[in-house]
Amino acid sequence: MPSLNEQSNLALKRTVIVAIFAAVAVVLSLVESLIPINMSVPGAKLGLANIMVLTCLYFLRARDALMMVLLKTLLTAFIFGTFSSFLFSIMGALFSFAAMWFLLMVGRKRLSAIGISIVGGIAHNIGQLTAASLYFNTTNIFYYLPMLLIMGVLTGIAVGIAVRYLIPSLSKLSLFDGFLTETA
Amino acid sequence: MKRGDILLIGLIVVIAAAFLVPRWLGGDSSEKDHNEKRVANITVDGKLFRTVELTGEEQTIEIKTEFGTNLLKVHDYGIEMIDADCPDKVCLTFGFVERNGGTIVCLPHKLIVEIEGPPGEGDDVDAVVK
Fold it and tell me: B6 and B56 share a domain?
């Protein structure tokens, strides 16, 4: 009986963490849209929400993180966008999630949060460009990919550093007791 | 930061540079063929909306569709999106586009502007006569 109790406790904690992370990610995207920063590269953005996705991948199982990504994308789409822009962001979000999850499985020892967030950001760009090129039936859009790669490295480093600070801080909270993973 | 990170960053920068450097080097030579006419194809929702010749004179094009309004400006043999009533304004960040293959996209309005070389590669003479 106590083990059952513990299990449901763990499941509850997971749900709470997913909800909190998704909410924070939505707020971060809102904040990001308010920052009047001109990246001078179309489609480039800071990707602050990626901080939460990556942290979630470190703490929870892949399916919980996937749930969180879907929630975050849905909520952001409801707040900002239209149906078509939702299709583009979900494409980017899923690409990014898949890439980061794969890297965490394969290269956790070799890559730190910085490397993984760089790949996540770039995968997001590639996913969106692929969606756009399929939608408009043109490959001209990939013209902007090299610039996006450079921007992805810069923003990825920033996001990675944020994650490196966030994970140890969150680990001190009792909510995260059962979820400690070895981090970079 | 681990060694893998540095390798990864180096790899990405090299890939990006491989695409960007030839473009910068080729940029100078494209300056001189300004006399050849280029056109911008404006497509809305998969259908060709309008084709504009990219001239040196200023010219403003308003695109009003069921999806929204965009304001394009042609000048100095290129084209630029100067205003749009879309929610994200990503299309404004594309800036001034003048090269072949240059693109401006406005996702919420299903609009895409693509620059193409002279219409029909073979009939250069006709293009000049025009």
Answer: no
CB contact A46 to B (< 8 Å): no
- Together in a domain, B20 and B83: no
Tell which residue, A51, A17, A18, has the closest CA to residue A32.
A51
Predicted local distance difference test score (pLDDT) of residue B122 = 41
Helix (H) or strand (E) holding A177: none
Cβ contacts (< 8 Å) between A39 and chain B: which residues? Answer: 93
Residues B66 and B20 in one domain: no
In chain A the domains, ranked by start, together with CATH numbers, are 2-179 (1.10.1760.20)
What confidence tens digit (pLDDT) does each residue in A131-182 have? 888 887 777 778 788 888 988 899 999 999 999 999 888 888 877 776 665 4
* Residue of chain B whose alpha carbon sits nearest to that of A44: B90
CA distance B94 to B23: 17
- For the sheet containing B38-44, what is the strand order? B47-54, B38-44, B111-116, B103-106
Domain extent for B12: 1-33
* ipTM for this model: 0.74
Q: Phi/psi of residue A173, each to 5°?
A: -75, 145
Q: Which residues of A touch B41 (CB under 8 A)?
A: none
Q: Which residues of chain B have pLDDT under 50?
A: 32, 120-130
Say yes or no: B58 and B12 in one domain: no
Chain B residues whose CB is inside 8 A of the A41 CB are 93
Listed as ranges, residues in chain A with pLDDT below 70 are: 1-2, 36-40, 43, 81-84, 178-184
